[in-house]
Amino acid sequence: MSGNDKGTPSEHEGLSPEDRAAFARRAAGIGEKLDQAKGRQSELAAGPADFGNARGAAMSRSLRISTELLGGIVVGGFIGWALDKWLGNEKPWLFILFFILGATAGMLNVVRMASKERTPPAPSVRNDEDER
Fold this sequence. Notes:
- The chain has about 130 residues and is mostly helical.
- About 70% of the residues lie in helices and about 0% in strands.
- It has 3 helices and no strands.
- Helix 2 (about 45-85) runs antiparallel to helix 3.
- The two termini are about 50 Å apart.
- About 5% of the residues are buried.
- The mean pLDDT is about 80.
C-alpha cells in the first residue's frame, strides 16, 4: 500500500455533482413518502379512540330504528283498539287492520332511514403500475 491510498478516495469512489444532486432528490422524495406514511399511521392510531364514537353512533342508529318500528306498531294497535272500543265492535277487526298498517309504516320508516344512512364505499387503492 502506498501513502496515497490511505484516507483519500480514489477516482471511482467519488460522486459527481450531478449524482449527488440526483441522490439528494431521491432522498427528499423518500423523506416525503415517509412523512405521508407517518401521517397515515397516526390516523390509524387514532382509530381506537374514534372506535368509541363510531360504536356510539351505531348504537344510536340501532335504537332509533327499533324505536321507529315499535312506535309504528304500538300507535297503530292503539288506534285500532280505541276505534273498536268507541264503535262497540265485538270483533277486533279495526285493531288488526291498524296493527298491520302501523307495522307497515314502521317498516317503511326503517327502510327510509337505512337508505338515507348508507355507508360510503371504501376508497380505491391505486397500484404502482397505474402511476407509470
